[in-house]
Amino acid sequence: MRIALIKPANDGILGLELITLVEPLGLECVAGVLERDGHEVRIIDLRLDGFEKGMAKCESYAPELVGFQCNFTTERYRLVRATREVRRRAPRAFTLVGGHDCSRDPHWFNDSSIDAVAIGDGEEIVAAIVNAVERRADLATVPGMMLNTAGGPRFTPPSTARSELDTLPLPARHLVSEYADQYYINFRKPLALLETARGCPFSCNFCSVWKFHDSTFRMKSAGQVVRELETISAPNIFVTDDIFWMHHARSLEMARVIRASGIRKFYTVQTRTDIICKFPELIDEWRECGNLAVFLGVEKVDDAGLASVNKLNKASHNERAIEILKQRDVGFTCNFIVDPTWQREDFQKLKDWIEAHATYNSGFSILTPLPGTDLWDEAKANVNTQDWELFDIVHSVLPTTLPIDEFYQEYSALWRHALAVRYKHRGRARMYVQLVAGLAAGKVNLTMVKRGWNMAKIMGEPTTFLRQHEESAARVRTAA
């Protein structure tokens, strides 16, 4: 069967889209399974092709089945725009939507342009769906789907399959070769994604990853990780594991095997501060694999705040982990959660903490109840917008205690404060020298530099956020 897999356009407002554009790894993983089964597959990335060019590519390819990825709530409008256009251009093609967001809230995707929603890991579900569509079999017998029928949504039995990750084909990265050199995070480009484990055993109330995976945690072997790394040419790797180094012995083995392979990359990983505190030797081992940067979900600066989001961590771990990374000269980024109920003194408390710990590489997420999270169940009655584009974690979709304009004044001031702390500790001149050196060495380009400065300007201006609230009603009407 001829299959097109489509990543929706990147025309959102703010959030992560300002600083990152990464390969559609989920689509590549699904494509690997489909190619193994003998199907012809093409991946179309509308973020890079643009909507019209990408739709023309799809139409000329004449697919029999078109799959769409919706990982983030902010992608909903863009995805439906694409499914409706594909329905217009290829009316006989079967349309299938999959990904994290639609798996957690499939009812929202009950649209006439969508034939079915895959619920769960794509590699476990899509092959059976494609096989049934190709044979024109009864789709109601295929587990893990919501079928959009004339009589309304119809759910098939849930999929219980969870393969060992080593048994799955490698991602079909060759299908994004035309885009590969354009993927990046911050100033790291070109960039590839690497998954070494899947799932999360924790239960933070703002996150749905652990629910999506039913609190399971599966790992690839160290040998399989190296085999995948051998297929990646990009010098920069972002490890997609929600919690890297979760298993201590395996993490040490991975570092050892990677070093022995001779593969050296710049790795950006995400992990918990309590893991760093308990096993600081992991930092030393992974530094020997090339270069290392760490993303820390600090979230809150005190134990009460951590308890409020069910983080199951301690503020003392956050502080100690930062010191461990500084001692080893390992770059890190802290992310904090800003609560809509905050008063001015709460914003000041966070500023003081950033100043005291010199965490100038910081990001600030506004507490957002995303569908499929415990927080959504608790707070959905108070959500004050139907505009999914505002669920980008830099807009408040809940009532704020401060007047909304004052809330965004304080919020944007956090971004300006972090930049001021950076200038204080790193110096403006040193930053400029590093950027010039990066440009000269070809590690960054002018487009990336301009994007970085533009983000600092945008996030530090309160009217940026207010303007989007004002435009929200029109956006909802257009998307309907």
Structural descriptors:
43% helix; Rossmann fold; six-stranded parallel beta sheet; 17 strands; seven-stranded mixed beta sheet; TIM Barrel; alpha/beta; 480 residues
Outline of this structure?
With 480 residues, the protein is of the alpha/beta class.
* CATH fold topology of the domain at 183-338: TIM Barrel
Principal-axes shape call: globular
Number of helices: 19
Low-confidence stretches: none
Oligomerization status of the protein chains = single chain
Spatially, the strands of the biggest sheet line up as: 3-1-4-5-6-7-8
According to DSSP, the number of beta strands is 17
The CATH C-level name of the domain at 183-338 is Alpha Beta
Q: What value does the Rg take, in angstroms?
A: 22 Å
How would you describe the overall organization of this protein?
By secondary structure, this protein is an alpha/beta fold. Among the domains are: 2-155, Response regulator (Rossmann fold, 3-Layer(aba) Sandwich), CATH 3.40.50.2300; 183-338, Alpha-Beta Barrel (TIM Barrel). Helix content is 43%, strand content 17%. It has 19 helices and 17 strands. It has helices spanning 25-36, 46-49, 51-61, 76-89, 100-104, 122-135, 209-212, 222-229, 248-261, 273-278, 281-287, 303-308, 315-327, 344-357, 374-379, 404-426, 428-441, 446-459, 462-479; strands at residues 2-7, 20-21, 40-45, 65-69, 94-98, 116-118, 145-149, 152-155, 184-185, 191-194, 197-199, 217-219, 236-239, 265-271, 290-299, 331-338, 362-366. The strands form four sheets. It has a seven-stranded mixed sheet, sandwiched between helices. Helix 9 links the parallel strand 13 (236-239) and strand 14 (265-271). The longest helix has 23 residues, at 404-426. The mean pLDDT is 91.
